[in-house]
Amino acid sequence: MRPVLVGEEVDGGVYVEVAGSTIWHFCGGDPQGVPTVLLHGLFASAATWGAQVTDFVDAGLRVYLPERPGHGHSPDVPGEYTFATILERTVDYLETVVGTRANLVGWADGAVVALLVARERPDLVNRVVYVNGYLNSSGRHTDEFVELVLRRNPETIDYLRQHHDATSPDGPEHFGVVFDKTLRMITTEPEYPVRDFAGVEAPTLVVMADRGIVRVEHALEIVRALPKARFAVLPGTHIMPVESPELFNPLVLNFLAADPPTEWLPG
């Protein structure tokens, strides 16, 4: 295990204190640009947004990429992974590190976190991009990769530990702890009724892969519940920010820069 220090620079990012824990984050782009926070999911890190950062910075955004405890370069913390604790840290990160209203772009359970922040702290959010996330277990398909994780498939575990072992200050021996905590989380959360987000006023783009883990019907239910939602399905995709940045990036950037949507009403 390698101790980390607040303010220490590693791999282009720096360690900051958030809600009593030390996490790694990257910040880049125009200091006067609109803050845009990219939220990764479980078993992931800031690196999953590698195909987005350059385009987002070139578009004039101020890009922030925080890594959760136990993910990427961030040391783990005691206790379970829950949406409540992730929400708490994300809110504190927005308040103390970003320091102003921001766009939130979340992928998988990071998308759920983005929507939770928009619901609980609308004062911190400009717009939300909700990418391939499900709000409750009825919203996801049976997915081969998830099933391999749940069955603790050895090859899958080896694949997941590669990035952890290369970047985690906790060392390779800690991966088993992270894996077990993650497994407990994905078997119990999220379980939010879609109707609970009907009060979210932030303009939200719901983006789904047509071959992803989330049922398109569930995504439509989310879109219909949100008062200011737009909807996009990218064809032939599963992990679209990685597979199809040429489609995903312009879609997201146009949404973040656009005026409110017009509404067509029949005469």
Automatic annotation (TrEMBL):
<dbReference type="Pfam" id="PF12697">
    <property type="entry name" value="Abhydrolase_6"/>
</dbReference>
<dbReference type="GO" id="GO:0016787">
    <property type="term" value="F:hydrolase activity"/>
</dbReference>
<dbReference type="InterPro" id="IPR000073">
    <property type="entry name" value="AB_hydrolase_1"/>
</dbReference>
<keyword id="KW-0378">Hydrolase</keyword>
<dbReference type="InterPro" id="IPR050266">
    <property type="entry name" value="AB_hydrolase_sf"/>
</dbReference>
<protein>
    <submittedName>
        <fullName>Hydrolase</fullName>
    </submittedName>
</protein>
<dbReference type="InterPro" id="IPR029058">
    <property type="entry name" value="AB_hydrolase_fold"/>
</dbReference>
<feature type="domain" description="AB hydrolase-1">
    <location>
        <begin position="37"/>
        <end position="249"/>
    </location>
</feature>
